[in-house]
Design brief:
The protein has helices spanning 10-17, 25-32, 59-67, 111-125, 141-153, 167-174, 195-205, 210-214, 234-242, 277-280, 289-303, 319-330, 347-360, 383-395, 400-413, 449-463, and strands spanning 48-53, 86-91, 94-100, 128-134, 157-162, 184-186, 222-227, 262-266, 269-273, 306-312, 334-340, 369-371, 426-433, 438-443, 471-476. The strands form three sheets. It has a six-stranded mixed β-sheet with strand order 2-3-1-4-5-6, with helices on both faces. 39% of the residues are buried. The protein folds into three domains: 4-32 and 397-476, K homology (KH) domain (GMP Synthetase, Chain A, domain 3, 2-Layer Sandwich), CATH 3.30.300; 48-205, P-loop containing nucleotide triphosphate hydrolases (Rossmann fold); 222-391, Rossmann fold (3-Layer(aba) Sandwich). With 486 residues, it is α/β, with parallel strands linked by helices. It binds guanosine-5'-diphosphate. Residues 228, 230-236, 279, 340-341, 343-344, 373-375 line the site of guanosine-5'-diphosphate.
Length: 486
Amino acid sequence: MTDPNDAADPTEALRAGLEDYELDESDISLLDAAPEDLPGADAGPLPVLAVVGRPNVGKSSLVNRILGRREAVVEDVPGVTRDRVTYPATWAGRSFTVMDTGGWEVDVAGLDARVAEQAEIAVELADAVLFVVDATVGPTSTDESVVRLLRRSGKPVLLVANKVDDERGELEAASLWSLGLGQPHPVSALHGRGSGDLLDAVLEVLPQTPRERLGPVAGGPRRVALVGRPNVGKSSLLNRLAGSERVVVDATAGTTRDPVDELVELGGRTWQLVDTAGIRRRVHQTRGADFYASLRTQAALEKAEVAVVLIDASETLTEQDTRIISMVVEAGRALVIAYNKWDLLDDERRHYLEREIERDLVQVQWAPRVNVSARTGRHVERLVPALDTALESWDARVPTGRLNAFLGELVAAHPHPVRGGKQPRILFATQAATRPPRFVIFASGFLEAGYRRFIERRLRETFGFTGTPIEVSVRVREKRRGRPGR
Ligand code: GDP
């Protein structure tokens, strides 16, 4: 072990000083990681498993089972739209995304159409589908119509017979062979029976190497999601961008893409606009449309590296706009905000818009902003530098030496407040991941939220990070006992 007093490099001295603290294995591997090994936390999209079925068959319980925890997903509540529809899951060391398609308004009249619509969207977005049937009820005509749709899709489908709590239930489950989806997998989502076997079967049908299939191919196009609430102009912008520049897919080397994606040429380069089928298909403004919009947005974000959130500048900012921006930040994607319909703005509206932005979007002041008009084509070319900036920040890596020098100066000038006679010391910091940048600070005590936000603000001022969310987490470590001090 190096003696900190011998180390010429102050970063190495700090690092060596950390050895006096109780570090666990994950700390050590984080500290020892070579900079080029930094994981892009969300480097490639994970395969998506959609859970589809009629209301009350137990989809949410099954999703909870798969996630291995209880608190995440609540049962469908009529009239309540859920924002969150995708959840990270792992089984047998493999990671994937579970998409819960419950959570729309239960309305008996339009039920058939609704379930089919939901299934259609889910199937299009998913890599594999769990079709859940209530074994105690048996197949209904709604189930049968969904089956036809699932079979047409050609995607792998596993038939789940839920509510099989005992041996007798197994018999009931067997009757589901008649659906023609092959072997029913009997489970009890509530009690956990059969869920391990089901997950084993899931891993067999989920694509083995999603990253190769969908992930960033070296030098391949970067993946952009165009998101925003209905009528902000997504399809108009898509048409404007795709316009005459539609790229012939097969001619582009190194491209693997979903049929729902579109390749466009902007600023002399090819970009992959993900999940454009959802933009092209106009979802009818029925009840539950909000939910589909959420589902779409979330699914598109899963596949994207950067999101362009469109906002209708001619109208008052809505809660839905800010919610979509939060979804992007929470998904850890790079962010560009495009104010569309700029051609409709007069001076008065422009004034109010600026006030609304100041009031409602302070949290994302770091996002590049472009004012465009999909209708006239005004300034749409400015999206390219904005996307480049955001992605560059998203990929950025701060060398450990610079990071610690920055923190050293910051702490010297603005020490953490003393509380109850104690003052936590910042011991060392390192960047744990890129895409987006995530930083870990080792400290001798708890750092107050206000101080963490201050660090985050200064990180942005110093290193830029225009267009990317960043995360700062703190690991509090205690000094080793029973070891002679220096
Ligand atoms: P989407 O639901 O987000 O895909 O929105 P659309 O692209 O369908 O646009 C909704 C409406 O806004 C349509 O009537 C468009 O013609 C109109 N629109 C879209 N972009 C612009 C724009 O830049 N300026 C104006 N004036 N209208 C626009």
